Amino acid sequence: MAECSRILTKLWLRRRAGVAGLRAATGRSRRLLAGPLLGLLLVAVAAPGALARPAYFLADPITGYAIGGFDPVAFFVDGRPRMGETRLEYMWKGARWLFVNEGNRAAFEKAPEVYAPQFTGCGAYALAEGYATAGNPAIFAILDNRLYFFHTQVNRFLFLVEFETALADAQANAAKTGCVPRP
Question: What is the pLDDT of residue 183?
Fold first, then answer.
């Protein structure tokens, strides 16, 4: 996985340098980078023998922030993903977590297991099907006061329709795929 991360980082930095020049010339935003980077990550995850997820929680490969820098408490409080601020960082389970405000950070510090995504951020429905994918923080559900991420909207729908069965299958497959938090 370290080799894969190193290669992705090099590709991302090269791509970023090219996009910066394009952005200066055309005025386009960083969104140009999202599609190719996501594609590279998906290829790396699907590669045989590659680990499907980072060591602890879904982390941005460049910054190392858990769940891409989104505030885990905001999913519960605001009902939507919100980017945290770097000045409100907290280290837990080998990952750096960001928060929108001090109250969210304090709530997470008090009960991180409540707010952290289930299955370390892996896609819940994919786990139910027996494989691991990186969950997308923009596609989530809160069920029984737990946060779940999904790889696609279709996966989210299928998980919600078959919640009890899918949850049991996902829990059974989580350890096999490495989507459980380390102590």
Answer: 64
pTM of the model: 0.69
> CA of 135: how far to CAs of 29, 44, 49, 121, 123, in Å?
24, 14, 19, 5, 4
For the chain, the domains span: 2-46, 118-177
Burial of 5 per CB tally in 10 Å (0-12, 13-18, 19+): middle
Check residue 56 and give its pLDDT.
57
In whole angstroms, give the CA distance from residue 137 to residue 160.
Answer: 16
Which tens digit of pLDDT belongs to each residue from 9-22? 454 444 444 434 43
* Rounded-to-integer distance, Cα 64 and Cα 77, Å: 24
